[in-house]
Amino acid sequence: MKDLIEVRWHGRGGQGAKTAAQFLAEAALDTGKYIQAFPEYGPERSGAPIRTYTRISEKPINLHCSIANPEYVVVIDPTLVTPKVVEGLTDKGVLLVNTNEPIESVRKKTGFQGGKVACVDATKISLDTLGRPMPNMPMLGALLKVAPLVKLDVLYEKIRAKFLKKIGDEKTNANIAGVKRAYEEVNIG
Amino acid sequence: MSKLRALTGDQAAAEAMRQIEPDVVAAYPITPQTEIVMNFAQFVADGRVQTEMIPVESEHSAMSACVGAAASGARTMTATSANGLALMWEIVYIAASTRLPIVMPVVNRALSGPINIHCDHSDTMGARDSGWLQIYCENNQEVYDNVIMAVRIAEHKDILLPVMVCQDGFITSHALEGIKIYDDKQVKDFISEYKLQHSLLDIEHPVTYGPLDLQNFYFEHKRQQAEGMKNALTAMPEVFSEFKQQFGTKYDFIDTYKLNDADIAIVALSSTAGTARVVVDQLRAKGKKVGLLRPRVFRPFPKEKIIQALKNLKAVAIMDRSDSFSGQGGPLFAEFRSALLDEPRRPLTVNYIYGLGGRDIDTEQIKSVYADLEKIAKERQVKELVNYLGVR
Fold first, then answer.
1. All domains of chain B in start order, with CATH
2. For residue B296, what are the CA distances in angstroms to B269, B293, B329?
3. What are phi and psi of B106, to 5 degrees?
4. How far apart (Å, rounded) are the C-alpha atoms in residues A139 and A150?
5. Domains, chain A, ordered by start
6. Is A22 an interface residue toward B (CB < 8 Å)?
């Protein structure tokens, strides 16, 4: 693994992009990594496009600016798939999108020809497992398939630690099921 | 013993406050400080602290309640940002002149207008002459450590002045980082019991706080206040070394990075210094002799340390995240330039105002400052004294 891995998340206010960025960071912290997770707030409005960021490193992280050249871009909302989301994405980078469309369509819409594109229908998965459109946790599962940043088990533990008290056994397990399904179903090309 | 936890800068401040367990907290929530008050109020509601929490109706009332509580001998804290600090302004000065050791985390945010909730230092820089000590934090660990140390610094018998612990709004206040959290008992032992020498409630030894103070004594009281600030330069290192003994981290008034053999350097407060450190490493790898100085403490102004650290350099860029509208640079620049003025050998200085209203400051912008410095050092001339970095 590179010394510093940077992930940029694109979502809409209320879709859990901030939580996803934080869970990834916290899971990595549990495995001894240095971490940072931070949102880029504009006016805080539900439904407004937002960016959040995760940094994971083998060394202490001094950077305190936003992430311009991420290794991974995760798009949680299908309507945000435009060339804007791949700005600065490195040629060897990975673009992961929540969509029911094929990889070719995402490449066309974003103009991203390098690296890899990964697609997963995280909204459908969350509707199936959780009963509501909350694609953030499935997107984390899919991300761990394309980016071995932490082991799935570590993420499951983090989800249990964070959710169990707050939302109970059933919903926690539904979230974990969503992570697992997205990990298995994500298409990479 | 300590344990590693993922906390935002706001959560780190609230966690320190939980462990300090002040007698009184009077606070009003304001973005981006809100999560400090929110988290601390939760600790109170859950019975995890015995603090008397006063949910006031404004910041003016918050600081007023703090003044009353502190004068009675209560260990007292509050927290604020930007317009909240502006609203408590009148009482901010009174807290300092009354020599009340109140500790206040301030989450730096642009002072309106136009209204903006993001980071710059215009709020606390405006309060630089209020008589409060000011400590600036680079990251969340420092927020936590500094809030703990601030209690001891404010209450030090030779200082007895209130302390602001400043961190960058959103950039650290809302960023999650892994930080070392010490045992509750360790923190309690470090801050120890607090006893005010002259309590308003000590009816056996009655005292007066805040009376009319005219031509006869006002000047003497202000002179003593200046002495308290000066004393902080010698008293704060006692707290720094005790903190190191207890918790292992050594803090100082300034933090320098690769300055010893540097020709040129940047001076920057808080989180920007972290980003600049990365640039220093990148430029050092190319053989460039660059360095960095981060003032951790702005009040008192650690003049001697700064002179010693910078006097042999060729050129220094002082970065200000606020403008003073003096037409000759920001507040940090004015003080650095003034401090260096009497040195027979001193670097050329140049000012960069940047990041107002939360404008991102990235490695490319900082690289451009070092490039400018190289030119200045070579030509031995500053063509533009005050520069606006990253403005369209």
1. 3-247 (3.40.50.970), 254-389 (3.40.50.920)
2. 7, 9, 20
3. -120, 125
4. 14
5. 4-188 (3.40.920.10)
6. yes
DSSP string, B245-281: HHHS----SEEEES-TT-SEEEE--HHHHHHHHHHHH
What pLDDT shows up at residue A1?
53
CB-side exposure of B51: number of CA atoms within 13 Å? 29
CA distance B173 to chain A (A): 9
What pLDDT shows up at residue B31? 96
Nearest C-alpha of chain A: how many angstroms from B181?
14
DSSP, res B300: S
Contact yes or no for A178/A152 (Cβ under 8 A): no
C-alpha angle B176-A6-B366 in degrees, rounded to nearest 5: 85
CA distance B116 to B114: 6
Identify whether the C-beta of residue B197 lies closer than 8 Å to the C-beta of residue B100.
Answer: no
Nearest-by-Cβ selection for B271 from A39, A41, A64: A64
Report the complex ipTM.
0.95
Q: Is the pLDDT of residue A43 over 80?
A: no
Q: Could you give the maximum distance between any two Cα atoms of chain A, in Å?
A: 44
- Please compute, for residue B135, the number of CA atoms within 13 A of its CA located in the half-sphere on the CB side: 30
Whole-angstrom distance, CA of residue B164 vs CA of residue B145:
13
* CA angle at B142 for the pair B140 and B144, rounded to the nearest 5°: 75
Instruction: Find the length of chain A.
Output: 189
Closest Cα in chain A to B178: A35
The predicted structure's pLDDT at residue A45: 78
- Mean pLDDT of successive 10-residue stretches along chain B, which has 392 residues: 94 98 98 98 98 98 98 98 98 97 98 95 98 98 98 98 98 98 98 94 93 95 97 98 98 98 98 98 98 98 98 98 97 98 96 98 98 98 98 96
Q: What is the dihedral of CA B182, B184, B187, B189, to 10 degrees?
A: -130
Residues of A in contact with B278 (CB under 8 A): 62-63
Q: Which residue in B199, B241, B232, B375 sits closest to B301, CA to CA?
A: B232
Q: Residue A41 above 90 pLDDT?
A: no
**Stretch A42-58: mean pLDDT:** 89
Q: Look up the pTM and report it.
A: 0.97
Does B272 sit within 8 Å of A62, measured CB to CB? no
Return d(Cα B297, Cα A94) in angstroms, integer: 42
The closest alpha carbon to B55, from B25, B15, B22, belongs to B25
**What is the rounded CA–CA span in Å between residue B58 and residue B71?**
20
- Asked if A29's CB is within 8 angstroms of B178's CB, the reply is yes
Cα–Cα distance for residue pair B105/B215, rounded to 1 Å = 34
pLDDT at residue B177 in the model: 98
